C-alpha cells in the first residue's frame, strides 16, 4: 500500500514538472491574465469593423455578394499591391481601394483567379484626393427606363458597372482603423519564411437565398427567403390643400427630389451629391417659401415630393404615379391631370467650379410649359443679382433628360413638361456616383444654397403664372445658409448625424450609426401608409420637416402622439419626449415599392407585366435576401507542422512518463525487498 502511494506521488511530481515546462513559455508573455471564456475569445479573435456587400435579386438572377454555401469561409490574408498580383492558394484578398474596379472586372473574366478568391477586404480611403474617380454603377445608370433610343450615352464616364455583377464570395469594406489592423496582419503573413500564412479571415456572409437555392426574385418571394426593396416617399403642399374647396383644382407645380442612393456596400450608401444635395436644396427652398405670406393668392398650387427607391428602378416616382391613377388615399388631394409642370432638383452639390455656381437645366421636350420653367430659372437667376448664380440650358446634343425621377413622368406621359436642375451638362460631374466616396467632402454647401435659392424663386415665379410677379416679394425669398449646413451635418455626417438637434426635435431616430441612404426593404402590408411603423429615419424626418414648414396653426393647441382630431390636421413631433403638436398641413406618406409586386395573403407576389405600363415591363423587381448574422473576424491558425510537433511532444511526454513510472517502480520494489 505504501509502495503504491509512493509510486503515485512520484508519477504526479513528474507530470507536474513536465506540465510546468510546457506552460512556462505561455506564462512568460505580456503578463495578461485570462479570467473567463470571453477574455479568451477576445484574446484569440479580432472583430473587424466593416461594411458588407450583400445579395440582391431580380427577375433574371442575382447581383452582389454572398458566401458560396451555408458555411463560414476561412482563408489566409494576402495583400494585393498591384493589379498583376497572383494567388497561389485560396485566399482572402486585402485590396487597395484604387484597384477595386480593375480587380472585380478581372475576377469576372479570369476563372483561374476566381477559384482562388475566398473573400475580399477593401481598404478604406482616408482622403478622396488619393483617388480621382470610383463609380461601381454603369455608364448609363438604369438605361432601360430611358424614354429615348440612345442608351449608349456615357452620363457616368467613371462607371465600371461592377456593382451589377454576382460574386460568390464575401466582400467587405474596412473602416480606416480596421484597414491599419489588416495591413499589419497581412505584413505578418508576408514575413513567414516557409510560405505558411497563419493569420486568416473568417467570413460569415451566408445568405438565405443561397441556402434555399432561390436565385431570382420570383422564387425567393415564393419561398420567403427575401423581401422587395422599398420604403416611403413623402409629399406636401404649400399652402395646405383644403378638401372640398376649389383650391385643390388649381394647376399644380410639382417640385421633386430623391432621398435614396446606392453603393457596392449596403450600409455605405451616402449619396452626398447624388442625390442628397438635391434633397437638402429642396428642403431649404421649402423653408424659404414658407416665410412668404399670402401664398394662397397664387394662381398655381405648389406641391413638393421626395421620392424613395429611385436608385432601384424609380420605385418611388412610379408608385406615386400609380397611386394617382388609382385614386389612393395617400394622394387623394392631388389630381394627376392638374400637374402642369415638374421641376426636379437633382445633383447640385458640385456647381461651384469657379468663382460662382453654374447649373444646367435639362428640359423634357420643347413644349411651351417646359420653356416657361427655363424662363423662370433665368428670371430667378437675374433676381439673385450679385450672387451670380448662372443657369444654362443643357446641350441639345444630349440624348434627353439624364437619369432622374422625371423619366417616370415622361414615360407615363410623353407630353410631360419638366426640367431637371443639375450641376452637370452632358456627363456627371460627380466622379464618385453611387460610391461610398460620395461623402460630404464631395460637395460644396454654397452650391446647394445657390440651388435652393434658385429653385425657391423659380417656383414662386411659376406659381404666379402669367400675372406680374411681385418683385418685392420675390426679393425677400432668401435661403437660410445655416440650415443648409445643418442639414448636411444631420443627413451626411457621422457626427452629429441623425442625432443632431434639428432631427431630434422632430423624430426619435432609431439608429445612432452614420447616416446611410440605402432604400431598405418593404416589410409587410402597405395599406396603412399614413402611420407606417417602420418608415426609415430619413423618411420620417422629411415628413415632419415638410409638415412643419408647410403648415398653418391648428385651433387645437394640445399635444399629440399620433392622430389629430380635426380633419386636415397632422401631428408633428409625435415621437419626441413630451409629445408633438397638431397643425394644419397636407403632408402624406406614399409607399415606394415596385409596381410589379403585390402584398396578398400575408406574402409578396410578383405580378405579370402590363403592356400599358412600359416602365413596369422593364422593371427588374429588386429584392434583398434574408440573412441570420453577418460577421467578419481575424485570428491566427497554427501551421500543421506545429500541430505535428505538439503531437510528437505529447507522445514523448507520455513515453517519458511511462519510463519514469517503470524505473521508479523497479527502484522502489528493490528498496522494499532490502527492508
Automatic annotation (TrEMBL):
<keyword id="KW-0472">Membrane</keyword>
<keyword id="KW-0732">Signal</keyword>
<keyword id="KW-0914">Notch signaling pathway</keyword>
<dbReference type="Pfam" id="PF05450">
    <property type="entry name" value="Nicastrin"/>
</dbReference>
<feature type="signal peptide">
    <location>
        <begin position="1"/>
        <end position="29"/>
    </location>
</feature>
<feature type="transmembrane region" description="Helical">
    <location>
        <begin position="644"/>
        <end position="664"/>
    </location>
</feature>
<dbReference type="InterPro" id="IPR041084">
    <property type="entry name" value="Ncstrn_small"/>
</dbReference>
<protein>
    <recommendedName>
        <fullName>Nicastrin</fullName>
    </recommendedName>
</protein>
<keyword id="KW-1133">Transmembrane helix</keyword>
<dbReference type="Pfam" id="PF18266">
    <property type="entry name" value="Ncstrn_small"/>
</dbReference>
<keyword id="KW-0325">Glycoprotein</keyword>
<dbReference type="InterPro" id="IPR008710">
    <property type="entry name" value="Nicastrin"/>
</dbReference>
<dbReference type="GO" id="GO:0005886">
    <property type="term" value="C:plasma membrane"/>
</dbReference>
<feature type="domain" description="Nicastrin small lobe">
    <location>
        <begin position="52"/>
        <end position="209"/>
    </location>
</feature>
<dbReference type="GO" id="GO:0007219">
    <property type="term" value="P:Notch signaling pathway"/>
</dbReference>
<keyword id="KW-0812">Transmembrane</keyword>
<comment type="similarity">
    <text>Belongs to the nicastrin family.</text>
</comment>
Amino acid at each position: 500500500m505504501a509502495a503504491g502511494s509512493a509510486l503515485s506521488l512520484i508519477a504526479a511530481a513528474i507530470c507536474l514538472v513536465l506540465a510546468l515546462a510546457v506552460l512556462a513559455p505561455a506564462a512568460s508573455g505580456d503578463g495578461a491574465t485570462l479570467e473567463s471564456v470571453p477574455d479568451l475569445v477576445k484574446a484569440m479573435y479580432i472583430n473587424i469593423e466593416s461594411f458588407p456587400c450583400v445579395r440582391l435579386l431580380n427577375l433574371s438572377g442575382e447581383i452582389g455578394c454572398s458566401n458560396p454555401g451555408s458555411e463560414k469561409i476561412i482563408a489566409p490574408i494576402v495583400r494585393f499591391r498591384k493589379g498583376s498580383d497572383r494567388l497561389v492558394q485560396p485566399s482572402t484578398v486585402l485590396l487597395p481601394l484604387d484597384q477595386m474596379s480593375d480587380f472585380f472586372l478581372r475576377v469576372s473574366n479570369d476563372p483561374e483567379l476566381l477559384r482562388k478568391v475566398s473573400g475580399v477586404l477593401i481598404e478604406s480611403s482616408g482622403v478622396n484626393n488619393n483617388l480621382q474617380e470610383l463609380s461601381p454603377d454603369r455608364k448609363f445608370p438604369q438605361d432601360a427606363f430611358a424614354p429615348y433610343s440612345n442608351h449608349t450615352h456615357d452620363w457616368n464616364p467613371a462607371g465600371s458597372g461592377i456593382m451589377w455583377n454576382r460574386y460568390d464570395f464575401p466582400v467587405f469594406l474596412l473602416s480606416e482603423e480596421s484597414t491599419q489592423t489588416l495591413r499589419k496582419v497581412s505584413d505578418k503573413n508576408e514575413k513567414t519564411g516557409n510560405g505558411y500564412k497563419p493569420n486568416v479571415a473568417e467570413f460569415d456572409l451566408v445568405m438565405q437565398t443561397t441556402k434555399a437555392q432561390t436565385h431570382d426574385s420570383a422564387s425567393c418571394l415564393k419561398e420567403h427567403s427575401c423581401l422587395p426593396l422599398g420604403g416611403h416617399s413623402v409629399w406636401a403642399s404649400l399652402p395646405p390643400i383644403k378638401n372640398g374647396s376649389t383650391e385643390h383644382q388649381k394647376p399644380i407645380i410639382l417640385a421633386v427630389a430623391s432621398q435614396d442612393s446606392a453603393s457596392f456596400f449596403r450600409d455605405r450608401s451616402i449619396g452626398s451629391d447624388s442625390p442628397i444635395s438635391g434633397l437638402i436644396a429642396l428642403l431649404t427652398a421649402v423653408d424659404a417659401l414658407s416665410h412668404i405670406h399670402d401664398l394662397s393668392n397664387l394662381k398655381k398650387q405648389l406641391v413638393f415630393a421626395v421620392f424613395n427607391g429611385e436608385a432601384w428602378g424609380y420605385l418611388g416616382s412610379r408608385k406615386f404615379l400609380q397611386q394617382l391613377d388609382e385614386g389612393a388615399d395617400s394622394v387623394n388631394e392631388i389630381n394627376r391631370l392638374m400637374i402642369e409642370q415638374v421641376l426636379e432638383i437633382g445633383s447640385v452639390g458640385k456647381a461651384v467650379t469657379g468663382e460662382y455656381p453654374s447649373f444646367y437645366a435639362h428640359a423634357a421636350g420643347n413644349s411651351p410649359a417646359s420653356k416657361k420653367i427655363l424662363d423662370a430659372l433665368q428670371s430667378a437667376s437675374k433676381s439673385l443679382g450679385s450672387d451670380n448664380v448662372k443657369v444654362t440650358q443643357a446641350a441639345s446634343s444630349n440624348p434627353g433628360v439624364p437619369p432622374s425621377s422625371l423619366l417616370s413622368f415622361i414615360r407615363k406621359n410623353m407630353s410631360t413638361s419638366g426640367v431637371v436642375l443639375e450641376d452637370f451638362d452632358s456627363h456627371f460631374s460627380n466622379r464618385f456616383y453611387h460610391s461610398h466616396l460620395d461623402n460630404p467632402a464631395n460637395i460644396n454647401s454654397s452650391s446647394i444654397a445657390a440651388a435652393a435659392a434658385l429653385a425657391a424663386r423659380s417656383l414662386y415665379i411659376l406659381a404666379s403664372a402669367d400675372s406680374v410677379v411681385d418683385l418685392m416679394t420675390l426679393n425677400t425669398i432668401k435661403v437660410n445658409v445655416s440650415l443648409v449646413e445643418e442639414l448636411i451635418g444631420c443627413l451626411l455626417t457621422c457626427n452629429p448625424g441623425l442625432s443632431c438637434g434639428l432631427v431630434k426635435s422632430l423624430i426619435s431616430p432609431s439608429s445612432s450609426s452614420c447616416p446611410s441612404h440605402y432604400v431598405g426593404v418593404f416589410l409587410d402590408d402597405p395599406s396603412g401608409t399614413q402611420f407606417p411603423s417602420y418608415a426609415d429615419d430619413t423618411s420620417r424626418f422629411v415628413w415632419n420637416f415638410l409638415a412643419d414648414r408647410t403648415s398653418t396653426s391648428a385651433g387645437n393647441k394640445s399635444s399629440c402622439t399620433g392622430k389629430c382630431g380635426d380633419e386636415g390636421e397632422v401631428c408633428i413631433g409625435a415621437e419626441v419626449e413630451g409629445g408633438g403638436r397638431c397643425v394644419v398641413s397636407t403632408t402624406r406618406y406614399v409607399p415606394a415599392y415596385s409596381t410589379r409586386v403585390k402584398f396578398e395573403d400575408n406574402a409578396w407576389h410578383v405580378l405579370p407585366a402590363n403592356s400599358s405600363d412600359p416602365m413596369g415591363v422593364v422593371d427588374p423587381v429588386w429584392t434583398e435576401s434574408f440573412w441570420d448574422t453577418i460577421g467578419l473576424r481575424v485570428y491566427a491558425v497554427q501551421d500543421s507542422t506545429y500541430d505535428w510537433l505538439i503531437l510528437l511532444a505529447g507522445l514523448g511526454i507520455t513515453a517519458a512518463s511511462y519510463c519514469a513510472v517503470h524505473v521508479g517502480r523497479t527502484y522502489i520494489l528493490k528498496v522494499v525487498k532490502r527492508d
